[in-house]
Design a protein that fits this description.
elongated; Sortase_D_2; two-stranded antiparallel ribbon; Sortase, Chain: A; 3 helices; single chain; eight-stranded mixed barrel; Sortase_dom-sf; 2 domains; 10 strands; alpha+beta
């Protein structure tokens, strides 16, 4: 009986070990979709709150009643929900990265920490700002699952378009260059002092990586 129980336990553990990569991958995909959904819902809440503020601001400050003028006091909307949502957006999500060429749509998390990189792509601290002169750098892992995170970044070519959607504005960047560099080549993170750039970074090859894929693009009007 003991041997049979031990065998069943070993089989069960073996199945768990085999399924873990798949289950972990699906969980990460679920988390990405959850972040995107929450991001979209937050934007809707902000828009609704703004609409309510505009509607109330249109209410006249004085209302004639039986020949007399009664001064009304507008009811102030609580700014807490909007402030809270905006604060959370600013803290966690900077926007959504979209590359139609490789069917990519991912939330951009703020700061490329270990935890953030497990969930999605993330901006690298102390690089440029989105839409501003400088080099806005985004890093992401390459997963073995096809199309996951920056798995297909090497398919992006010069001339392809990269979009970053902040909810209130869309930024379009045109790919200018694709490089394969060593990990210590941090010069790729620096801006040239005149252009509004974006740089996407991931490891290469996917297994036992020795280099980095660098996709550099410049802001264009669209």
């Amino acid at each position: 009986m003991t041997k049979r129980t031990l065998s069943l336990v070993c089989i069960f553990l073996g199945i768990i070990i085999l399924l873990y990569p798949t289950l972990n991958d699906r969980y990460e995909s679920y988390q990405q979709q959850r972040i995107l959904k929450q991001w979209q819902e937050n934007l809707q809440h902000i828009d609704q709150a703004a609409s309510e503020t505009e509607r109330i601001s249109e209410v006249p400050s004085s209302i004639p009643v039986d020949g007399a003028t009664v001064h009304s006091q507008p009811v102030a909307l609580s700014a807490e929900p909007t402030t809270s949502v905006a604060s959370m957006m600013q803290k966690n999500v900077e926007g959504v990265l979209i590359i139609d060429k490789i069917n990519l749509k991912l939330p951009i998390l703020k700061d490329a920490t270990v935890d953030n990189m497990k969930l999605s792509v993330a901006s690298i601290a102390n690089t440029g700002k989105l839409g501003a002169v400088g080099n806005y750098a985004i890093a992401g892992h390459r997963n073995l699952t096809y199309g996951k995170n920056f798995n297909r970044l090497d398919e992006v070519a010069v001339g392809d378009m990269i979009e970053v959607d902040t909810g209130s504005k869309q930024y379009w960047y045109k790919v200018q260059d694709k490089l394969y560099v060593l990990p210590e080549d941090v010069w790729v993170l620096k801006g040239n002092g005149k252009d509004q750039e974006i740089t996407l970074i991931t490891c290469h090859p996917m297994e036992n990586p020795t280099h980095r894929i660098i996709v550099k693009a410049k802001l264009v009007e669209k």
